[in-house]
Fold this sequence. Notes:
The structure is a homodimer.
Chain A: H1 2-18, H2 34-47, E1 60-63, H3 77-89, H4 102-106, H5 110-114, H6 117-129, H7 134-145, H8 163-174, E2 178-186, H9 187-198, E3 205-217, E4 220-231, H10 237-245, E5 252-255, H11 261-268, E6 275-280, H12 301-309, E7 312-315, H13 316-319
Parallel strand pairs in A: 1-2, 1-5, 2-3, 5-6, 6-7
Antiparallel strand pairs in A: 3-4
Helix pairs in contact in A: 3-6, 7-9
Amino acid sequence: MKLTILFAIVVLVIVSLTVPVFAADPLPSWNDGAAKQSIVNFVQRVITPGKDFVPVAERIATFDNDGTLWAEQPIYFQLAFALDRVKALAPQHPEWKDKEPFASLLKGDLKGALAGGEPAIFQIVMATHTGMTTEEFEQIVKEWTTTAKHPKIKRLYTEMVYQPMLELLAYLRANGFKTFIVSGGGIEFMRPWTEKAYGIPPEQVVGSSIKTKLELRDGKPVLVRLPEINFIDDKAGKPVGINEHIGRRPILAFGNSDGDLQMLQWTAAGSGMRFVGLVHHTDADREWAYDRTSHIGTLDKALDEAKAKGWTVVDMKKDWREIYPK
Amino acid sequence: MKLTILFAIVVLVIVSLTVPVFAADPLPSWNDGAAKQSIVNFVQRVITPGKDFVPVAERIATFDNDGTLWAEQPIYFQLAFALDRVKALAPQHPEWKDKEPFASLLKGDLKGALAGGEPAIFQIVMATHTGMTTEEFEQIVKEWTTTAKHPKIKRLYTEMVYQPMLELLAYLRANGFKTFIVSGGGIEFMRPWTEKAYGIPPEQVVGSSIKTKLELRDGKPVLVRLPEINFIDDKAGKPVGINEHIGRRPILAFGNSDGDLQMLQWTAAGSGMRFVGLVHHTDADREWAYDRTSHIGTLDKALDEAKAKGWTVVDMKKDWREIYPK
Lengths: 326, 326
């Protein structure tokens, strides 16, 4: 009798070491509904041996960043960073007082500064993102992301990541997926904080970039950031960036705007099971509500295509129980 | 008494499930000597809690490919691929009969074809590597690597990888390292076979590239390979490529030529423990012997710097028990 009981203990010990505890809901911030169901169905089908099974090495998931993993209103957060840098650097640039777009900006007239359109933004970005070494830029970004706060929400920008998407990233990784960011934002603006914020390491971040150049400074090699565009990881550039950095087609992709459309089409065009998702900003109370006519995160053609193709459209207001981490 | 015995069994079962068996030599194809010792010492120091400890996420190791992970004589294997493609494509290009470097090449006069130097090689590469989609190119490379054989060794090129380096890659990964290729070779020429040959997935391959463009063909999005250089991942380009693709500085780097010098310097210049290694081709019997005056894999400045800085120089003849996998 004793033998039987102890044998049972041995079995229990072995079982407890090898079989995971039955999992709690991996997506607690998602309300039950079609969006959540479609995610869970997809993951279960590709990890279960059978016709839809996908080997671990091919479980590549790509996510846009602005408006998909963190907020993007009232202006892209990287632009907020650039504007803060203009103010910080102004004492070293007395000539900016008489030079647009800097002059308007320093007078607090953002609208006037941005009236120059893309060339004005280009000037602001180049003045604030280049000239230093990659390591110096990393420190500047780290300092900003740990101190600057959003004007409306009054939280650090890196705290304005979406709790449901954090759960989705973790759920995918727990099921053997490798999660990547594929963003129009600057690759070196994102890398200093994506690992902490999303669990996505620098080597899994794809973004827009400027050219860099190897130089010796004080006898040590450094990479200097040059005022020259290297790559724009947006629209038709996203499949190009995915191919260059990942070299495999994703089986899951998530975006929120027309800038993501080609990435979503590229993902959908692969063979086998595919998941294509869009975050639709529908929550004016807890976040922002915008789509077809918004200048930031315009969602028009991609919304039509999602409906036509049966892609998953996440209705932020209905589908998300929480927006930001508590 | 029975209780004690069974308790002992429970303990043994638990222990056997949690403690790894004392490891056999992880580098059996390396002869005992300074090179092997320096590798093992480095790995043990960075994985052991203490002042030299490096967190898993920062255990980045980068390897050159040609001459470091696989052979590169008598011509770079990618050039052998290009030459084979010229022959295969010749029927579709009757004009090549009167056009250099193709004319010489098709007559079997390699020396004459390459007499045109870099512009001739550029023409051969563009004629054979562009115009098709990325997926078509992948298939072409796969077919070549599974059929073409080296003229002297009479084995598939992908079987001319170095057994000691395969063991080193596996040893590093078993100790939490992420292993990357950083090669002057074409990124899309390597990716179709690096996972099988080295256990290195496509997203961990950095190399030279041409531009690609998203197009719709038969209603499906494809990436077309354009006859335009995107990036040359050699010399001062290697730290640039590492920064762009990995976004972290390696703590270990291995090369074999002056083309790797800047990658090695970039690695050495980081703070904390660093390992910098060179494969020195010293074995004319089992492989090839070449260094300072070789046109392929010139090893001159990097050899001097390795000696001056105390980097690990692997003497292929003395340090490697085996060259290729059996």
